[in-house]
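F.,

This is the one I mentioned.
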């Protein structure tokens, strides 16, 4: 087989790219590496195929792709010396090269804006209906499992409790400790102006027990465990494992969703309580260092001024937060379709929506308990 080569002849009236030998697919790697560069000031180029002994689809693609790229740069390219068979092959390959279509600019004006707004509203409405339907399905399965506990997969439940609860203890405790430190430091700076440093105990206790402890714990769980739920279940849906479960007569909601949501319902209150203890410890430590409030005084004021309802209000919120995070994350996982890109998009949407709904629900609880005088 004659070695294929491509040489640039600039001595002619116009630059000529001469192709010699057998330009076949097997030789494309060598030919591409040895191909001469076309000077940027070359506006007209001639590709001479008269010396090409053989040309297959791969070789034709190499010449056609070069011609297409040079013409896209505004140069004039002419192919000469090709036999009838080579010309027909070049024409077929050139026709098959996909055109680079630049994305069209979205239409502007009031009507397109109204159209996009309407479509977005309809899509949002469908998503809300789908989410509410899924929430009802989850509640049905949870009640069914509670009435028939032998259907619960305890191995999966304990595994999820370890993943969502036990392994999250360090980050939750550290977060609670730092929140307590920050509250004590900032509160002391403000209360010192009025000689009311001792009330920093009440500030720390009410803020941590009533609001920040459980709220920030739920946000951490949404980002850590909620995203993990969406990614793992979404990958199973993408690989058709959920369809395989249905084929085997298994209920994916009961197998995949119920253990994860029950694990959140059990572990989120525990994590919230750990965050509260860590927050009080951090606040008490900073109060002792910065204000000289001894641990004994801190604990005595905690018992005297902070009622049990401050802790109870935070703990009451925990199951609702857990249910919201679990339902949103699993629902987003069941919306995965297409490719692995969808898994990442749904995971991001799961975290954003879970955190937003947790904060919104916390605001509703705050208004409710305030109206109730608690």
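My design for it:
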């Amino acid at each position: 087989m004659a070695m294929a080569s491509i040489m640039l002849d600039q001595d002619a009236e116009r630059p000529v790219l001469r192709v010699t030998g057998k330009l076949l697919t097997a030789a494309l790697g060598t030919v591409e590496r040895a191909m001469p560069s076309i000077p940027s000031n070359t506006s007209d180029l001639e590709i001479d195929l008269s010396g090409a002994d053989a040309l297959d689809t791969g070789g034709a693609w190499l010449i056609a792709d070069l011609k297409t790229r040079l013409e896209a740069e505004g140069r004039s390219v002419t192919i000469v010396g090709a036999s009838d068979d080579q010309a027909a092959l070049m024409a077929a390959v050139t026709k098959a090269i996909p055109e680079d279509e630049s994305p069209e600019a979205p239409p502007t004006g009031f009507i397109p804006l109204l159209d996009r707004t309407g479509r977005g509203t309809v899509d949002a409405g469908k998503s809300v209906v789908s989410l509410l339907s899924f929430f009802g399905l989850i509640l049905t399965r949870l009640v069914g499992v509670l009435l028939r506990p032998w259907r619960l997969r305890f191995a999966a439940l304990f595994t999820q409790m370890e993943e969502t609860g036990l392994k999250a203890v360090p980050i939750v405790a550290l977060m609670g400790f730092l929140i307590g430190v920050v509250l004590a430091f900032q509160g002391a700076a403000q209360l010192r102006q009025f000689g009311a440093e001792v009330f920093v105990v009440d500030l720390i206790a009410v803020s941590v027990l009533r609001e920040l402890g459980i709220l920030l714990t739920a946000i951490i769980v949404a980002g850590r465990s909620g995203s993990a739920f969406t990614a793992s279940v979404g990958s199973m849906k993408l690989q058709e494992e959920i369809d395989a479960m249905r084929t085997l007569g298994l209920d994916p909601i009961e197998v995949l969703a119920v253990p994860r949501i029950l694990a959140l319902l059990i572990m989120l209150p525990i994590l919230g309580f750990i965050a509260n203890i860590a927050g009080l410890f951090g606040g008490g430590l900073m109060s002792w260092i910065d204000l000289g409030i001894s641990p004994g005084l801190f604990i005595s004021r905690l018992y005297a001024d902070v009622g049990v309802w401050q802790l109870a209000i935070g703990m009451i919120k925990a199951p609702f937060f857990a249910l919201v995070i679990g339902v949103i994350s699993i629902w987003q996982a069941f919306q995965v379709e297409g490719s692995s890109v969808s898994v990442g998009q749904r995971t991001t949407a799961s975290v954003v929506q879970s955190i937003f709904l947790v904060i919104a629900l916390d605001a509703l609880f705050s208004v409710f308990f305030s109206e109730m005088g608690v």
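Residues 252-291 form the longest helix (40 residues).

Talk soon.
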